[in-house]
Amino acid sequence: MNYLTRNKEENLTIAKELNQLLADYHVYYQKLRNFHWNIVGENFFDLHDQFEDMYKDARVKIDEIAERILTLQFHPVSRYSRYLKIASISETSPFQTDRDMIFILLDDHKKLLYQMNLIIDKAGKVKDEGTIDLIGGYIKDLEKKSWMLNAWTKAKVQQLKADIVLS
Predict the structure, then answer these.
(1) Calpha distance 50→160 (Å, rounded)
(2) CB 98 within 8 A of CB 41
(3) Residue 156 in 3-state DSSP?
(4) CATH assignment at residue 134
(5) What's the domain count of the chain?
(6) N- to C-terminal Cα distance for the chain?
(7) What is the pLDDT along the chain (167 residues), one digit of tens a residue?
């Protein structure tokens, strides 16, 4: 029974993109675990906890993405071998500095945000409000986390652009 208002082809378009995001999130999740386990140095306590919070959040999103694919009446990709083939995010060595870990994650965030925006665009064309709602919240969360990680990389004397405040 088709309980959705869209046809199978429209749902397939969205499910394919969600499976891409699912693969990206699985590799991202494991990278966060990797960094959580392997962080050393003076920022250990802060980043160890931060990476744990981030991988817990990613784990929830992985489940929600898979369930959205199922809601669209398709199967989510569920093998790591397939994730590694289709993901735009790649595995990373555990031997990174704290700063390198943050820059790697910020780069991954760009890839995740690109995919999420692609999903929003395609879901909008077929009026898939459920997917738009789900992914829109993810975009908000990831943009905020990116701002925070980016702020962590700045020197104490650096400031944001003051153009809008000074005009």
Answers:
(1) 23
(2) yes
(3) coil
(4) 1.20.1260.10
(5) 1
(6) 58
(7) 466 677 888 999 999 999 999 999 999 999 999 999 999 999 999 999 999 999 999 999 999 999 999 999 999 999 999 999 999 999 999 999 999 999 999 999 999 999 999 999 999 999 999 999 999 999 999 999 999 999 999 877 767 676 666 66
pTM given for the model:
0.93
The Cα–Cα gap between 81 and 122 comes to 26
CB 72 within 8 A of CB 4: yes
Surface-to-core class of residue 86, CB atoms within 10 Å of its CB (0-12 exposed, 13-18 middle, 19+ buried): middle
Is residue 1 domain-resident? no
Structure letter (DSSP) for residue 77:
P
Q: In whole angstroms, give the CA distance from residue 48 to residue 27.
A: 18
**Domain enclosing residue 111, as ranges:** 8-153
The structure tokens listed for 12 are 């397939």
What tokens appear for 162 in the block? 């003051």
